[in-house]
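Hi support team,

I submitted a single chain yesterday and got back a structure, but I'm not sure I'm reading the token output correctly. Could someone confirm the output below corresponds to the sequence I sent? I've pasted both exactly as they appear in my results page.

Thanks,
R.
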Amino acid sequence: MLKYFKSNESILFFLLIILCIFLSFYNPQFYSIQNINSILRSSSTVMIVAFGMTILLTSGEVDLSVGALMSFVTVIVMDVINISGSLFLGFLAVFIFCLMIGLINGLVRTMLNVNSLIATLAMMLILQGSVYIYSMAAIYNTHLLPFFTFIGQGFVFKIPMPVIIMLFILPFFIFLLNYTKYGRYFTAIGSNPSSSSLSGINNNKFKILGFVITSLLVGVAGIILASLMDTGQQGSAKGFELIVIAAVLLGGTSFKGGSGTVIGTILGILILKVIDNGIILMRIPQEFQLVVPGVILILAVYFDTLRKEKNV
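Hi R., thanks for writing in. Yes, this is the structure output for that exact sequence:
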């Protein structure tokens, strides 16, 4: 694992260690099994979506609709399973819906040539309104299927199930970005779209693929969130996109494309979640849980700009 660490990852790793040491001195409860599991469980859904966002940002694109889509997923999966009594049908409905949203985002970006920031902002607004058209109220669990609850709330050898799911997905994205030509294609597209096109890479195809992968990962995270809450709620993932993007940028992925790292993304998420946990342990008003990612987002983009200027 250490061979994946670059200078930025090393800084993040030591920053994470310093934060953990500080919080453990401030409140010994920080290192309790219950608290560690809480951090890991809340980190896992962000990590799952962030893997896709890392690919997107590496290719020079971004998806602001992930939070709204995730909220919609919780409503869909709970409603379909309540009606059908089938986990398979509930999951199938989620992934078909997410596939459709990913394709629309990708096609609007590539075929209509709408900037991804604007295209996915529009999709975010559409989803935020449409979920209330779909259901005006929260949808509660009436199917009572044990395995559905286990997905978000269960443990395997004392490890939270959401963490197990994240660890199952993680190797694929490490392999994709570090060992395959397709990972290099995403980097090339984000670094210099004209050159990658001249090299025979179908830029639009890979950008659409990036949006689809990200949306499908939102489907996985949304199912986990619905299981954790045991309900489907329209605004359950409000602000989620900010946390994901801030963590990915903090991890060293460039907002302008051309560079990205899964390990850095993981470290960025852990830092944000440890800070969130510290805010709770130190009894600081929880509104700061959104203030901190906002500040980090500004700083991450600023330092990314400095890095780009230095490399010119």
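A quick pointer for reading it: Residues 34-238 form one domain. Let us know if anything else looks off.

Best,
Support desk
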